[in-house]
What does this fold into?
Amino acid sequence: MEAILDILVEIPGQIFAAWGWMMEHLLYINLVLSVVIVFFQRRDPKAVWTWLLALYFVPIFGFFLYLLLCQDYRKNKMFRVKEVEDRFKYTIKSQEEAIAERDVWLRDSRYAEYENLVKYNMETSGAVLTGDNQVEIFTDGVEKFDDLIAEMKKAQEYIHIQYYIIKNDEVFQRMIPVLKEKVTHGVEVRILYDGMGGRFMPKRVWKDLESSGVMVGEFFPAFLGRLQLRVNYRNHRKIVVIDGRVGYVGGFNIGREYISKDPKFGYWRDTHLKIRGSAVYSLQIRFALDWNYAAGENLFKDGWYFGLDQEKGQEAFPDGGKHDVEIQIISSGPDASNRQIRNNYLQLFNKAKDHIYIQTPYFVPDDAVLSALKMAAEAGVDVRLMIPCKPDHPFVYWASYSYVGDLLAVGARCYVYKEGFLHAKGVMADGLVCSYGTGNMDIRSFELNFEVNATIFDQETTEKLEEAFRKDLDHCQEVTKERYEQRNMWIRIKEQCSRLLSPLL
It folds into this structure.
């Protein structure tokens, strides 16, 4: 006992001695840690300099923040599944050959200039072009969740649900009885949520669902309760696939704010797409890749999930309406070397001849995106950006406002949405092509988060989204160049400080 007490007495002295040694050699320690940051991972130079400044101002502790926020997962191909490559590479290869021989292509000749974009998506991420789709657009959360629950009630085989955020409030509580009932009728139900986005969900709710037969997976789970060691690299995707006949993708998560019941945000303006057709299987593949990693179950062993080896044909389009929309489902994340969604946005900016409309809650572009938008505006393209008027992340908001100034200087038009909170994420170009989904117009979505978008080559769908954009202008206040230049000193300071942090936001 005396020996233990002696050790306990000595511990504080040893800690102080270690601390003293670290302070005495701080210069050399920082030098070594700086070498690690600069040479051991390939990162954007601006991000490297930002972290070096953090290390300078917050010695040692800044490096621990770097380890917490910036582990590089690109070299670790955690999400590559051989089965999906083997099963679907023939489809992708046959499309590439058909396009090369001009046997298969976008039906409308006006889309000929997008040939390289379609080929790029296929070559870099295996995004198959499908042309037998029907798209319905939701901009209101109540309507979206009403429709989703109605489709869940029709499920016969499976319901696959993936959201970044799932909260234990009236929206999810409304779904639970439907999901439990479906399980009793033999329907497979899988729910995948992100460990950070779902951190406030009581574990008892998941246990109750699992006891009823619902399968639950957590992406990058917390360590020791709610302690998250991976603040970055979150799975920001929102996908639902039901029986392979209908799929959902877009900006709405599961929570009461998304049905406009949180007074902090007011009306929640978002965009979600409901898809019927072969593009649903592309969404299913994306869900399966994430589910396989998080839950350890290989869905690719059953081809019928993806329309392969399936005797039953796809359900006819219920209303007999237009079902010839051409879509590529594209995804990006830190496990890939290409910034797929960002590069699709870039292509749309570079090809636009008449106008570009952008909706995003966060506008923190990298140099390439900002330059493309500025060049388009200087070339006479009508560039319009819409962002929220209120911040849910203050640093990101003020950084966004800083970049608004860059666009105003070259003649672009910028608006802040005043009706509530704008969470829609997408780009529309020339009334012909659009890309909507979960990807924000910021560095975090481009590089750090796992995202999914639908790039749609269809005039009617794009025009509907542009019409919604123009209606939103009635609830916006335009930020003119003159008004922007009149902002006070405190706003300028917040902008500049936040912009310095933009590589980390």
Remarks:
- The chain has a mean pLDDT of 82.
